[in-house]
Amino acid sequence: MALSGMRGLSVFISDVRNCQNKEQERLRVDKELGNVRTRFKNEKGLTPYEKKKYVWKMLYIYMLGYDVDFGHMEAVSLISAPKYPEKQVGYIVTACLLNENHDFLRLAINTVRNDIIGRNETFQCLALTMVGNIGGREFAESLAPDVQKLLISSSYRPLVRKKAALCLLRLYRKNPDVVNVDGWADRMSQLLDERDLGVLTSSMSLLVALVSNHYDAYWSSLPKCVKILERLARNQDIPQEYTYYGIPSPWLQVKTMRALQYFPTVEDPNTRRSLFEVLQRILMGTDVVKNVNKNNASHAVLFEALALVMHLDAEKEMMSQCVALLGKFIAVREPNIRYLGLENMTRMLMVTDVQDIIKRHQAQIITSLKDPDISIRRRALDLLYGMCDVSNAKDIVEELLQYLSTADFAMREELSLKAAILAEKFAPDLSWYVDVILQLIDKAGDFVSDDIWFRVVQFVTNNEDLQPYAAAKAREYLDKPAIHETMVKVSAYIIGEFGHLLARRPGCSPKELFTVIHEKLPAVTTSTIPILLSTYAKIFMHTQPPDQELQNQIWSIFNKYESCIDVEIQQRAAEYLALSRRGADLVDILAEMPKFPERQSALIKKAEDTEVDTAEQSAIKLRAQQQTSSALVVTDQRPANGTSPVNQLGLVKMPSMSSNADHNSTDQGSSQENGTLSKVDPQPPSADLLGDLLGPLAIEGRPATAGQPQPTVTPGLGSDPNAVDASAIVPVGEEQNSVQPIGNIAERFHALCLKDSGVLYEDPNIQIGVKSEWRLHQGFLVLFLGNKNTSPLVSVQAIILPPSHLKMELSLVPDTIPPRAQVQCPLEVVNLKPSRDVAVLDFSYKFGNNMVNVKLRLPAVLSKFLQPIPVSTEEFFPQWRSLSGPPLKLQEVVRGVKPMPLVEMANLLNSFRLMVCPALDPNPNNLVASTTFYSENTRAMLCLVRIETDPADRTQLRMTVASGDPTLTLELKEFIKEQLVFMPPAPHAPGPVPPAPPVAQPTSPVAALTDPGAMLAGLL
Amino acid sequence: MIRFILLQNRQGKTRLAKYYVPLEDSEKHKVEYEVHRLVVNRDPKFTNFVEFRTHKVIYRRYAGLFFSLCVDITDNELAYLECIHLFVEILDHFFSNVCELDLVFNFHKVYLILDEFILAGELQETSKKAIIERMGELEKLE
């Protein structure tokens, strides 16, 4: 039955439906597209009705999956049609065909705006809908204030206002910097009094987005949310049309509880009591009913209530109820409920300490791991992974291994990665760890990434006790008839290194070892052959007394591969052949591989690095980050085992530098592990290895850190007396020689000024990482203190020396950091006023008899409190003119600028959150940038910057900075200047390095006491 | 939030596709193909949720039609599951006993209804009555 009023459209749809096959359909569609195209070309002859019909046809064709590469303009132009039917088509089809970045949308902005502010309600609705669905930045810039007005004005029908609320939500989510929500707290609070539940539902979504960004402005909304929830839960005064299967709008209930999860706590005792009563009622009063829709709706509310309780119930009044409910859910047959039970249990592990209770359900959870539905299996795997600790690791990992053989392909990689990580983290003993990894490779070799086998090799190399065991195990696997290539690699490697430890066992003579490995050679790929060649060379070396027959065999293999086309193989073969003819030299050169330096497991990093993409930040994650319970020790509870360098898990997760190092280490593993000639080096092996792994950083580290960057470190050199401390960033005094930092502290600091997370400091004992989040005038930092050793670090002290413009609060730092543990210390920063001064972390610890003390600049620099903001020509010039002359507008000719192309300078400014506005300045040699500065005293202040460069002399430029605050102008100008004249010594372009660091160093604090300008002049 | 809504039949023909995140056309086609493959072979006894890239798809089958919503990992699954059902009830009411053919020949109407129901990837109106009345108003303007 065709309701459609357009006959031509219906006929076309029928035609397409009647096509016998895909080919016919394509022909029919092509014919229609040709027809539409011709008609559009001759637009004058088209009636509005025809145009409308053709645009619908285009959408239909597009929906069928065909490319429609014309006619977009016609769709957009219908938006300006005077009558509803055409306008409606224009809006709807445009919203489907184009996305927010499409150029044509710009053409429509004016019409859309006129529709939004106009008097025709229907047009308003159409315009709000399109902007709400596909509006991008330009829409936000030109429409946000109008949309805000519609939302709060009572003269519009709820119909318009609910659309305005969601339209605003879209604009805000997409461009929080453009949509000004200052002062919206009161309005949101008023909106929550709305009687119309449609408007309320939409407004609640808006509130969730707002509070997820910063809840503290919206405290006044909290009691209102609780009221709304009460009203819904008790079904008071809810119109019939808003109840769904007898449940008062389950969606609004869910949204309201979602909003509440972004507040860290409910302080007012009355509100808290009311809320807990409602939650209690939901937890206890939700029964399983027959009607599936009703059941789903009531459980949607129940699961949201559970999440809210987990979030709020610091006193654990209701937590046991939650655990009991979840325990029930994970045992039910109804798949959706079981899935949600598993999912929420996993979430619960993230917020509270319920491991022990959840462990009781282990058997039940393992059953779900074998469920036919992959969705449930995934949840079960996540939960098992999350609940695993030393006590149950053996059971869980063995369960995972067993499941691995039958698991479907979609899950094997994840399974093997998780099993490998758990085995590493919680191994009760190392031989078990080796067993697990070898089993993994045996059962799912295709899904075991190289990282996994590199890791096991590292452990074996670093643990002498483990070596005979690992070699024996490897030997066993080699007896199996068909083994995975990864198994060939790992066992050949281990046998090569440690096979001689098996010498007296049956079947383990050099000749037998050689034979069993060599049998595998015909089946392996070229990437494995080099490893085998190294193994042969090592076996040969360990054959005492020499065995003539074995020697001939091995030599003939080397001979054969000497002419191999693969360079790696050829080189190894040639070198080993030459070496093995030199007798005793061979022993030196092919000696056992040195121990690997300890580092974070690449596997664990890999698992942690997966990020999800959500519209709002997860409340649970935020919660986990906010945990103010001072320092939180995350560590393995393994008994500290002096001989085992196991468990790297503690170390900092995010720094990209360490990830590079990790990469290096794994690369090392793949290409050089087996000791080709190029690897052999007369130097002490461990130092060499470290040097190799860390590259220029480590080499530079020792001499450079003492004094290199000081004179150039100007940010801390204001008039503040603390400034002396601020610039001292070296290990203090005599301690300098006892523990050397790894990497360049100044470079690390400068890197952190540009990004939000990374390593602040590292030495052989400790790594200090920083992760930070900046919101307007506030900063939330977490310091990750990771003990890299197998013994504890004691007398740990961290003192913050804040400059006068920052309020900083560091949570308690524990006195001792357990072996291989990582401690997280949250640090809150509030910016009071503009200043370039830099906060310093005075950090010390004792390791053995050494007291180590370092003073580290913290990257809470001026630019962190900037928010880039684009400014149009119309906005820029009036502002620029109104800020006339000093002290609001300052100009300076800067000399001694590090020469760089204009693009690079623009990038540099952008990376300091100064948004370069291209083409604003007619002169192509100039840059204009804008930003907003936030501090507690000033709130948002617009700052404008203009830089005029001289193409003939790139070392000088004229800079003009303007803002509404004289201090801000001055500080910002100086800050930018520092960035332009000082570039952190990048590896490719070394910056100004003072010739004699130890001498240069003391001069800097002296200069600091005088004047930053003088200091700079001296430098240049 | 809802990333996209798809209505597909068992053969994978798209009957409605609405995206609330900007995707290129080629990407849309890929998504439609993948989501169809993901849901079409699932046993009716399985959950209505399935992971899709970094998000999850909440789907429900009505006769030969699959309604799929792609939402954030942290979203409330059951709430969206019932959101599908509410949408189906609205369609059913509007077309009085809806069938796939109604949706095929009146796909433009379905887009209109959807725009009254969901906006910016969020629920806009949960009253069936309000939406049906609104559709009545709009029909008069045509």
TrEMBL record, chain A:
Single GO MF descriptor: clathrin adaptor activity
Domain Clathrin adaptor alpha/beta/gamma-adaptin appendage Ig-like subdomain: 750-859
Gene Ontology, cellular component aspect: AP-2 adaptor complex
Intracellular or extracellular location(s): Membrane, Coated pit
A Pfam family recorded for this sequence: Adaptin_N
Ranges annotated as biased composition (Low complexity): 686-698
GO biological process: clathrin-dependent endocytosis; intracellular protein transport
Predominant localisation class: membrane
Pro residues compositional bias, start-end: 987-1000
UniProt-annotated stretches for the region Disordered: 626-721, 987-1007
Annotated positions binding a 1,2-diacyl-sn-glycero-3-phospho-(1D-myo-inositol-3,4,5-trisphosphate): R7, G8, Y49, K53, Y54, V55, W56, K57
SUPFAM superfamilies to which the protein is assigned, alphabetical: ARM repeat, Clathrin adaptor appendage domain, Subdomain of clathrin and coatomer appendage domain
UniProt superkingdom: Eukaryota
Keyword entries, A-Z: Coated pit, Endocytosis, Membrane, Protein transport, Transport
Biased composition (Polar residues): 626-647, 656-677
Membrane topology: Peripheral membrane protein
Family (UniProt): Belongs to the adaptor complexes large subunit family.
Stated role: Subunit of the adaptor protein complex 2 (AP-2). Adaptor protein complexes function in protein transport via transport vesicles in different membrane traffic pathways. Adaptor protein complexes are vesicle coat components and appear to be involved in cargo selection and vesicle formation. AP-2 is involved in clathrin-dependent endocytosis in which cargo proteins are incorporated into vesicles surrounded by clathrin (clathrin-coated vesicles, CCVs) which are destined for fusion with the early endosome. The complex binds polyphosphoinositides.
Complex and partners: Adaptor protein complex 2 (AP-2) is a heterotetramer composed of two large adaptins (alpha-type and beta-type subunits), a medium adaptin (mu-type subunit) and a small adaptin (sigma-type subunit).
Protein name as it appears in the record: AP-2 complex subunit alpha
TrEMBL record, chain B:
Pfam families: Clat_adaptor_s (PF01217)
Alphabetical list of Gene3D superfamilies matching this protein: 3.30.450.60
Domain AP complex mu/sigma subunit: 1-141
Keywords from the UniProt entry: Cell membrane, Coated pit, Endocytosis, Membrane, Protein transport, Transport
Cell compartments where the protein resides: Cell membrane; Membrane, Coated pit
GO cellular component: AP-2 adaptor complex
Family annotation (SUPFAM superfamilies): SNARE-like
GO annotation, biological process: clathrin-dependent endocytosis; intracellular protein transport; vesicle-mediated transport
Membrane topology: Peripheral membrane protein
A GO term for molecular function: clathrin adaptor activity
Coiled coil segments of this chain: none
InterPro entries: AP_complex_ssu, AP_mu_sigma_su, APS2, Longin-like_dom_sf
Family: Belongs to the adaptor complexes small subunit family.
PANTHER family in UniProt: ADAPTOR COMPLEXES SMALL SUBUNIT FAMILY
Protein name: AP complex subunit sigma
